[in-house]
Specification:
The complex is a heterodimer of chains A (about 375) and B (about 425).
Chain A lengths: L6 H17 L2 H6 L9 H10 L19 H14 L6 H14 L2 H12 L5 E3 L5 E6 L2 E12 L6 E8 L6 E7 L5 E5 L9 E11 L4 E2 L6 H36 L1 E2 L2 E2 L4 H29 L5 H27 L10 H13 L4 H13 L3
Parallel strand pairs in A: 1-4, 2-4
Antiparallel strand pairs in A: 2-3, 3-7, 4-5, 5-8, 6-7, 9-10
Chain B lengths: L15 H15 L15 H14 L18 H11 L6 H18 L2 H12 L5 E4 L15 E5 L2 E12 L6 E7 L10 E7 L5 E5 L9 E12 L3 E2 L5 H17 L14 H14 L6 H29 L8 H23 L13 H10 L3 H4 L4 H12 L27
Parallel strand pairs in B: 1-4
Antiparallel strand pairs in B: 2-3, 3-7, 4-5, 5-8, 6-7
Helix pairs in contact in B: 1-3, 4-5, 4-6, 6-9, 7-8, 8-9, 9-10, 9-12
Chain lengths: ~375, ~425
């Protein structure tokens, strides 16, 4: 998040923070461990009421933001969700809502956005890797597997990129109802206690032309933008987890005594904390730079998104791991909350492109293709 | 200068855009293009060239953009300076004037100098007539800056200075120094120091150049033998030199990080393209473009550079907006230093055996990357070591308990000192 928030943003930030603390503390997160969806419909609907689902959607479609760029408001939510390892399909819903708002026809927007923005439905994004499609009449026949798809089994609509075998290299995006015949969604197991993923299998699913979002064969830049939004949000979330764990650890080192002195008085530990603080501030800086670049559609947005992912992915998880070490044995128990943060940050690190895949994107910018 | 009813109107100050256009035209007409062959380290002849370039800026009305007009500057805003810096990127400029002279010492003089001191030195600095250095560290202890043993004893209108300073940049080719010396041994260490303006080339001062591992001779050690310093050359208050030194260190951190409004034109930290270039050149020259590991390394170096830039922006903004404590500056110093360490390590890994041996006399990128690893720790030691930065971050930024110090609240003459302390 930016250092300087407007009054409206600060109010929204505070409202979201208070809501999450009151309605979804860590005890509530733990209680959802075996819940199939990982969140309650009521929680998500109330989050939507606060504005979480509105921010990337224009007012004409029932959305609206607090500042000029809704994404800079949305990262406030993502960061707070990281601080409390909150449940809810923030990334996929935001990605699909934004894609619809930017490229959807009036009919598509009217059919899907009102319920999505109201938090009554969920949408999922099948990611950047396309599945195969064959043109058939006005529509397409889809074959292939996308996994892991966040909130795939909770979604009423799935946004999927396809590559048509006979249309050359162009990507096409389709917004497919979850109950389409030939489409099977299978819940997967996962590292996070409340974030659900699914395998989405297309086995000759027939999708009509009315499902095409944007231009046939012309969706590459939209897919890139969706990736950028997803990574910006997960980076903000990782920063939130690391920030909160750092806070807890600093407090713990002050409270805990060994050999008659607080742990925080040992220089070996102080220097570790100083390094962690440096990594943390750099994570904040990288996440904000990426968010601003994507929000303002800067020319180097794709680069700065990958810079953020390459830096934050490994450093946020390493920071949390170091904080586990500084906590001692209690840090590796189920009872202590640290593992909730480590789970979330680790999932964020490896989804929507691993740091290594994002590093390769940067290498391509600097050196050309391998 | 202005009464309540005489607030200057906006159009009295040239707009940044107008200033930028004027600077662009002037630079094109008066300055030579920058090229990679320019060795802008402190080497013979180059400093004289830079003094002349500084004089040209001064005569053209573009020197000291953020310095007070009363002392030869332009009295304009940081935005004007930034515009000029952006416009000047393609030109050969007096780079060496920036740090430490303009960004650190002249800036400290603006804060704490007397009117007479400013009149005497600031216009001369802006004309390129005076190069300045800082005499702070001593051979007896680098990190314990306030544990200074160089003494200045009052004798009528002068102070008599004895002792030694070390790690000053290019003192042999410079004109003046700000020098911290102990003037009171009966109070705890921070309360008995005074900052002096010292003319470097005078009887009683001996300057010796120190040969560094990369062969450079930039750093110096100075020896003071009964040097008489006029009392009028005290900066700030007598025995309150630590206040001045603290301000100086803040300017140093800003200048080194590339965030000073007192420097002009290209300075370290701004040359992202050329840093990337040396690594990508190496990867291409050694046929590693298709090597997945090499690609990851090149990307990592680039990421670190970009994150460093974002971090400097965040902390500079945070401190100036009062949202972060000033010791947060140590976070960017530590980041820059550890970044350099990792970056040079990446350079060595990409260079491979080309860093060890090269055709005799060649100036290839393998040689450069190999030699850089020898000075890898430079930034981790200079301007406050990484260990000191970690103390500052943990104690002053995060409020963790301070390290035990045997010299706290003790008259400095009673503080224990090791065998290597001092020259005698």
């Amino acid at each position: 998040m930016e250092l300087e928030l407007s009054e409206e943003q600060a109010f929204f930030h505070e409202t979201t923070r208070k809501f999450l603390i009151a309605e979804c503390p860590l005890t509530a997160v733990r209680a959802l461990e075996s819940d199939p969806a990982g969140f309650t419909p009521e929680y998500w609907r109330r989050g939507a009421e606060l504005g979480w689902t509105h921010l990337l959607v224009p007012e004409a479609d029932g959305g609206g933001s607090f500042s000029e760029h809704g994404l800079l408001d949305l990262v406030l939510v993502a960061e707070e969700m990281g601080r409390l390892v909150s449940p809810g399909p923030l990334v996929p819903v935001s990605v699909v809502a934004s894609a619809l708002a930017e490229a959807g026809t009036a009919d598509q927007r009217a059919a899907v956005l009102p319920a999505l923005v109201a938090g009554e439905t969920v949408a999922a994004w099948c990611g950047t890797d396309p599945v195969d499609a064959v043109a058939q009449g006005d529509g397409f026949v889809l074959t292939g597997v996308a996994a892991p798809v966040e909130a795939g089994a909770q979604a009423q609509h799935l946004l999927v990129a396809v590559r048509t075998v006979d249309d050359g290299d162009g990507l096409t995006q389709l917004l497919v109802p979850a109950d389409t015949p030939g489409l099977t969604v299978t819940p997967m197991g996962g590292l996070d206690l409340v974030r659900r993923f699914a395998e989405v299998r297309f086995d000759g699913a027939i999708v009509p032309a009315s499902a095409v979002l944007g231009e046939v064969g012309g969706a590459a830049s939209a897919v890139e933008r969706q990736l950028q939004i997803a990574v910006v949000l997960q980076c903000a979330e990782m920063v939130g987890t690391a920030d909160r764990v750092f806070e807890l650890t600093l407090e713990y080192l002050g409270d805990r005594y060994s050999f008659g002195r607080p742990l925080s008085s040992y220089q070996a530990l102080k220097h570790r904390i100083a390094d962690d603080k440096m990594w943390l501030e750099a994570c904040h800086a990288a996440a904000t730079a990426a968010a601003v670049a994507v929000a303002t559609r800067a020319d180097n947005a794709g680069e700065l998104v990958s810079v953020a992912k390459v830096w934050i992915g490994p450093h946020a998880t390493e920071l949390i791991q170091d904080c586990v070490q500084l906590h001692g044995g209690i840090g590796v128990t189920w009872e202590h909350d640290l593992h909730l943060y480590l789970r979330r940050a680790t999932v964020d690190r490896v989804t929507y492109g691993t740091p290594e895949e994002h590093a390769e994107r940067i290498a391509t910018l600097l050196l050309g293709a391998a | 200068m202005f009464g309540d009813d005489a607030v200057p109107v906006d159009d009295a100050v040239e707009s940044v855009d107008a200033f930028r256009l004027r600077a662009r035209a002037w630079l094109a007409a008066n300055m030579a293009p920058y090229h990679a062959g320019i060795d802008h380290r402190f080497v013979d002849g180059r400093l004289d060239d830079e003094r002349a370039l500084q004089r040209r800026l001064f005569d053209g009305g573009f020197a000291g953009i953020c310095f007070p007009a009363e002392y030869g500057g332009l009295g304009l805003s940081a935005e004007h300076q930034l515009a000029f810096t952006q416009e000047s990127m393609g030109y050969d400029m007096p780079f060496a004037m920036n740090v430490p002279t303009l960004g650190i010492l002249a800036a400290t003089l603006v804060d704490y100098g007397t009117h007479e001191q400013k009149l005497r030195h600031l216009p001369a600095i802006l004309k390129g007539e005076e190069l300045w250095v800082q005499f702070l560290s001593e051979p007896s202890g680098g990190s314990d800056l306030a544990g200074c043993l160089t003494r200045a004893d009052r004798d009528g209108d002068v102070f008599v200075m004895n002792g030694s300073k070390i790690w000053s940049s290019a003192a042999y080719a410079s004109d003046y120094a700000m020098c911290l010396a102990r003037t009171n041994w009966d109070v705890p260490k921070h309360r008995g120091l005074t900052m002096f303006i010292v003319k470097i080339h005078q009887p009683g001062i001996q300057v010796e150049q120190i040969r560094q591992v990369d062969g450079s001779m930039e750093f110096c050690q100075e020896f003071f033998d009964d040097v008489a310093i006029p009392a009028a050359d005290v900066v700030g208050e007598i025995d309150d030199g630590w206040t001045v030194a603290t301000a100086l260190l803040v300017h140093e951190r800003n200048a080194v990080a590339g965030g000073s409004p007192y420097t002009s034109g290209r300075s370290s930290g701004h040359e992202i393209r050329s840093e990337d270039d040396s690594l990508t050149d190496m990867v291409r020259a050694t046929g590693q473009v298709g090597d997945a590991h090499a690609r990851q390394l090149v990307a990592e170096a680039h990421v670190r550079q970009r994150v460093g830039t974002a971090l400097i922006g965040r902390i500079t903004q945070g401190v100036s907006a009062g949202k972060m404590l000033p010791p947060a500056g140590s976070v960017m110093k530590l980041f820059s230093a550890t970044n350099v360490m990792r970056r040079y390590e990446i350079g060595l890994e990409l260079a491979g055996v080309t860093a060890a041996a090269w055709p005799a006399g060649a100036q290839g990128v393998g040689r450069r990357l190999g030699e850089l690893t020898l000075t890898r720790q430079g930034l981790s030691l200079g301007g406050g070591s990484n260990e000191i930065q970690r103390n500052i971050i943990s104690e002053r930024l995060l409020g963790m308990p301070r390290e035990f110090a045997a010299d706290r609240e003790v008259p400095y003459r009673d503080v224990p000192r090791g065998g290597s302390a001092g020259r005698s």
